[in-house]
Design brief:
Keywords: ATP-binding, Kinase, Nucleotide biosynthesis, Nucleotide-binding, Transferase. By secondary structure, this protein is α/β, with parallel strands linked by helices. The protein contains eight helices and five strands; from the N terminus they run E-H-E-H-H-E-H-H-E-H-H-E-H. It has a five-stranded parallel beta sheet with strand order 2-3-1-4-5, with helices on both faces. Helix 2 packs antiparallel against helix 3 and helix 3 runs parallel beside helix 5. The longest helix is centred in the middle third of the chain and has 25 residues.
Length: 207
């Protein structure tokens, strides 16, 4: 595969999705067609799995079921959308990828790193991004953003206790330290314009 694969990671409320939409026009001007996608989702089957995972009514989904559903969605998404685009030499930017499972299910749910990393590897055949932007933000600030900006669209994971979200952030910080060559940390507590500018600068300098 000769395309460029970038993932955006961070706790809920960090602003990844907003930043992705904001940087797309500049990136398209520079690199041509950009395939912007998201996890879980991005293709029909994975979007259906996303609905199952995030539906607040689905309280019977336990941590292991959640992990397996994410892995299934990831596999379908990768085969149907990401890999074909990379094979065509395109830049693919995914709003979440493998590190989300490590942070949320490995650290947040306490399933442990070994099983999550094995399942990620199994689902993706070991494909990792060329670059991952990690959007870091204080847990309380992130939760306040969710409450303020998504009050009518709170999903099952948003409803978790603050302690779960603190574990997720701590997990992300550990992941970032483990692969410094792949990760670049973006301070997501800055004004949005600065976060957008920093993200764009990192991508253009790297590629």
């Amino acid at each position: 595969m000769n395309g460029i694969f970038i993932s955006l990671e961070g706790p809920d409320g960090a602003g990844k999705s907003t930043v992705l939409q904001a940087i797309l026009p500049d990136l398209q001007n520079k690199y041509g067609e950009i395939v912007a996608t998201r996890e879980p989702g991005g293709v029909r089957v994975a979007e259906e799995i996303r609905h199952v995972i995030l539906n607040p009514k689905n309280t019977e989904i336990d941590a292991k079921s959640e992990l397996l559903l994410f892995a299934a969605a990831r596999r379908v998404h990768l085969q149907s959308k990401v890999e074909p685009a990379l094979a065509e030499g395109k830049m693919v930017i995914a709003d979440r990828y493998i590190d989300s499972s490590v942070a949320y299910q490995g650290f947040g749910r306490g399933l442990g790193l070994e099983v999550v990393e094995w399942l990620n590897d199994f689902a993706t055949d070991g494909l990792k991004p060329d670059l991952t932007l990690y959007f870091d933000i204080d847990t309380e600030v992130a939760l306040e953003r969710i409450k303020k900006n998504r009050s009518e669209d709170i999903d099952r994971l948003d409803m978790e206790r603050a302690e779960m979200h603190r574990k997720v952030r701590a997990g992300y910080l550990e992941i970032v330290k483990s692969e410094p060559e792949r990760f670049v940390t973006i301070d997501a507590s800055q004004p949005l314009e600065k976060v957008i500018a920093d993200s764009l600068k990192v991508i253009i300098e790297r590629f």
